[in-house]
Design brief:
By secondary structure, the protein is mainly alpha-helical. The protein has 6 helices and no strands.
Protein backbone atom coordinates (compact mmCIF):
# COMPACT_ATOMS: atom_id res chain seq x y z
CA UNK A 1 0.00 0.00 0.00
CA UNK A 2 1.04 3.57 -0.47
CA UNK A 3 1.19 5.68 2.70
CA UNK A 4 -1.86 7.62 3.94
CA UNK A 5 0.09 10.82 3.20
CA UNK A 6 0.38 9.94 -0.46
CA UNK A 7 -3.25 8.89 -0.75
CA UNK A 8 -4.16 12.33 0.63
CA UNK A 9 -1.84 14.07 -1.83
CA UNK A 10 -3.50 12.20 -4.71
CA UNK A 11 -6.99 13.17 -3.52
CA UNK A 12 -6.07 16.84 -3.25
CA UNK A 13 -4.45 16.77 -6.68
CA UNK A 14 -7.60 15.25 -8.18
CA UNK A 15 -9.58 17.95 -6.37
CA UNK A 16 -7.99 20.65 -8.52
CA UNK A 17 -10.13 19.41 -11.42
CA UNK A 18 -13.23 20.34 -9.42
CA UNK A 19 -11.87 23.37 -7.56
CA UNK A 20 -13.80 26.62 -7.29
CA UNK A 21 -13.09 29.21 -4.57
CA UNK A 22 -16.62 28.99 -3.13
CA UNK A 23 -16.41 25.24 -2.45
CA UNK A 24 -16.01 24.71 1.31
CA UNK A 25 -12.84 23.08 2.62
CA UNK A 26 -14.88 20.23 4.10
CA UNK A 27 -15.31 18.86 0.56
CA UNK A 28 -11.53 18.48 0.24
CA UNK A 29 -11.34 16.98 3.74
CA UNK A 30 -14.01 14.46 2.72
CA UNK A 31 -11.97 13.60 -0.39
CA UNK A 32 -8.86 13.01 1.69
CA UNK A 33 -10.80 10.82 4.13
CA UNK A 34 -12.31 8.84 1.26
CA UNK A 35 -8.84 8.31 -0.18
CA UNK A 36 -7.49 6.73 3.01
CA UNK A 37 -10.60 4.84 4.22
CA UNK A 38 -10.00 1.71 2.08
CA UNK A 39 -7.10 0.78 4.36
CA UNK A 40 -9.46 0.30 7.28
CA UNK A 41 -9.67 -3.25 5.96
CA UNK A 42 -6.28 -3.88 7.59
CA UNK A 43 -8.15 -4.05 10.93
CA UNK A 44 -9.40 -7.42 9.71
CA UNK A 45 -6.02 -8.98 10.43
CA UNK A 46 -6.81 -8.71 14.16
CA UNK A 47 -10.08 -10.59 13.63
CA UNK A 48 -8.64 -13.48 11.65
CA UNK A 49 -9.56 -12.19 8.20
CA UNK A 50 -6.87 -13.35 5.79
CA UNK A 51 -5.17 -11.05 3.33
CA UNK A 52 -6.64 -12.77 0.27
CA UNK A 53 -10.22 -12.94 1.59
CA UNK A 54 -13.08 -10.86 0.18
CA UNK A 55 -12.90 -8.52 3.21
CA UNK A 56 -9.11 -8.92 3.47
CA UNK A 57 -6.58 -6.17 2.87
CA UNK A 58 -6.85 -4.76 -0.66
CA UNK A 59 -10.06 -6.71 -1.19
CA UNK A 60 -13.55 -5.28 -1.64
CA UNK A 61 -12.75 -1.99 0.13
CA UNK A 62 -10.22 -1.23 -2.63
CA UNK A 63 -12.67 -1.96 -5.47
CA UNK A 64 -14.34 0.44 -7.86
CA UNK A 65 -17.75 -0.68 -6.59
CA UNK A 66 -16.79 0.21 -3.02
CA UNK A 67 -15.43 3.56 -4.25
CA UNK A 68 -18.78 4.33 -5.90
CA UNK A 69 -20.73 3.25 -2.81
CA UNK A 70 -18.55 5.27 -0.45
CA UNK A 71 -18.74 8.35 -2.70
CA UNK A 72 -22.53 8.10 -2.79
CA UNK A 73 -22.87 7.60 0.95
CA UNK A 74 -20.55 10.49 1.80
CA UNK A 75 -22.09 12.81 -0.80
CA UNK A 76 -25.66 12.22 0.34
CA UNK A 77 -25.19 11.53 4.05
CA UNK A 78 -22.77 14.37 4.77
CA UNK A 79 -23.59 16.79 1.95
CA UNK A 80 -27.24 15.80 1.44
CA UNK A 81 -28.49 19.36 1.08
CA UNK A 82 -25.87 20.18 -1.52
CA UNK A 83 -22.70 22.20 -1.36
CA UNK A 84 -22.01 25.70 -2.63
CA UNK A 85 -19.94 25.76 -5.80
CA UNK A 86 -20.21 22.09 -6.76
CA UNK A 87 -23.13 20.08 -8.07
CA UNK A 88 -24.08 16.71 -6.65
CA UNK A 89 -22.85 14.80 -9.69
CA UNK A 90 -19.47 16.57 -9.62
CA UNK A 91 -19.21 16.03 -5.85
CA UNK A 92 -19.88 12.30 -6.26
CA UNK A 93 -17.39 12.23 -9.13
CA UNK A 94 -14.67 13.84 -7.04
CA UNK A 95 -15.28 11.57 -4.05
CA UNK A 96 -15.33 8.52 -6.33
CA UNK A 97 -12.04 9.47 -8.01
CA UNK A 98 -10.42 10.26 -4.65
CA UNK A 99 -11.47 6.85 -3.30
CA UNK A 100 -10.64 4.93 -6.48
CA UNK A 101 -7.18 6.51 -6.58
CA UNK A 102 -6.35 4.44 -3.50
CA UNK A 103 -6.66 1.15 -5.37
CA UNK A 104 -4.76 2.53 -8.37
CA UNK A 105 -1.82 3.61 -6.21
CA UNK A 106 -1.81 0.31 -4.32
CA UNK A 107 -1.79 -1.58 -7.63
CA UNK A 108 1.43 0.29 -8.45
CA UNK A 109 3.28 -0.95 -5.35
CA UNK A 110 5.97 -3.61 -5.27
CA UNK A 111 4.43 -5.74 -2.52
CA UNK A 112 1.33 -7.54 -1.34
CA UNK A 113 -1.09 -9.74 -3.24
CA UNK A 114 -2.53 -7.14 -5.59
CA UNK A 115 -5.83 -5.25 -5.56
CA UNK A 116 -9.34 -6.66 -6.11
CA UNK A 117 -10.35 -3.71 -8.29
CA UNK A 118 -13.42 -5.42 -9.76
CA UNK A 119 -14.76 -7.03 -6.60
CA UNK A 120 -17.47 -8.27 -5.97
CA UNK A 121 -17.76 -9.38 -9.62
CA UNK A 122 -14.20 -10.66 -9.82
CA UNK A 123 -12.17 -11.06 -6.63
CA UNK A 124 -8.90 -11.71 -8.47
CA UNK A 125 -6.06 -9.56 -7.11
CA UNK A 126 -4.07 -7.67 -9.73
CA UNK A 127 -1.22 -5.21 -10.05
CA UNK A 128 -0.61 -2.69 -12.77
CA UNK A 129 2.26 -3.59 -15.13
CA UNK A 130 4.34 -0.69 -13.81
CA UNK A 131 5.06 -0.91 -10.04
CA UNK A 132 7.56 1.79 -8.97
CA UNK A 133 6.03 2.54 -5.54
CA UNK A 134 7.58 0.77 -2.56
CA UNK A 135 4.99 -0.80 -0.30
CA UNK A 136 4.40 1.10 2.94
CA UNK A 137 4.18 -0.63 6.32
CA UNK A 138 0.66 -0.99 7.72
CA UNK A 139 1.57 -0.51 11.38
CA UNK A 140 2.07 3.12 12.42
CA UNK A 141 5.04 2.35 14.70
CA UNK A 142 6.86 0.72 11.76
CA UNK A 143 6.30 3.74 9.57
CA UNK A 144 8.50 6.12 11.58
CA UNK A 145 11.72 4.24 10.90
CA UNK A 146 14.52 4.61 8.35
CA UNK A 147 12.55 2.28 6.04
CA UNK A 148 9.47 4.48 6.44
CA UNK A 149 11.50 7.55 5.55
CA UNK A 150 12.87 5.79 2.46
CA UNK A 151 9.31 4.95 1.43
CA UNK A 152 8.28 8.60 1.75
CA UNK A 153 11.22 9.57 -0.46
CA UNK A 154 10.12 7.02 -3.05
CA UNK A 155 6.53 8.27 -2.87
CA UNK A 156 7.71 11.87 -3.25
CA UNK A 157 9.23 10.91 -6.60
CA UNK A 158 6.41 8.68 -7.89
CA UNK A 159 3.30 10.28 -6.32
CA UNK A 160 3.90 13.73 -4.85
CA UNK A 161 5.86 15.32 -7.70
CA UNK A 162 3.47 14.01 -10.40
CA UNK A 163 0.48 15.10 -8.27
CA UNK A 164 1.92 18.61 -7.87
CA UNK A 165 2.66 18.81 -11.60
CA UNK A 166 -0.85 17.61 -12.45
CA UNK A 167 -2.45 20.10 -10.05
CA UNK A 168 -0.28 22.92 -11.41
CA UNK A 169 -1.25 22.10 -15.00
CA UNK A 170 -4.96 21.93 -14.14
CA UNK A 171 -4.90 25.22 -12.23
CA UNK A 172 -2.89 26.93 -14.99
CA UNK A 173 -5.34 25.68 -17.62
CA UNK A 174 -8.27 26.94 -15.53
CA UNK A 175 -6.65 30.39 -15.15
CA UNK A 176 -6.00 30.58 -18.89
CA UNK A 177 -9.62 29.66 -19.64
CA UNK A 178 -10.86 32.29 -17.18
CA UNK A 179 -8.59 34.91 -18.75
CA UNK A 180 -9.81 33.98 -22.25
CA UNK A 181 -13.44 34.18 -21.10
CA UNK A 182 -12.81 37.55 -19.48
CA UNK A 183 -11.10 38.91 -22.59
CA UNK A 184 -13.92 37.63 -24.80
CA UNK A 185 -16.57 39.35 -22.69
CA UNK A 186 -14.78 42.73 -22.82
Amino acid sequence: MASPFSHAVAALSIGTCFYRPQIPKRVWVAGVLCSVLPDLDSIGFRFGIHYGDFWGHRGFTHSLVCAALLAGVVAFAIFGRGVAGIGRFALCGYLFLATASHGVLDAMTDGGLGVASFSPFDNKRCFLPWRPIHVSPIAVHRFFTPRGFAILQNEAVWIWVPAILFASLVLTWKRMRAADASAASN
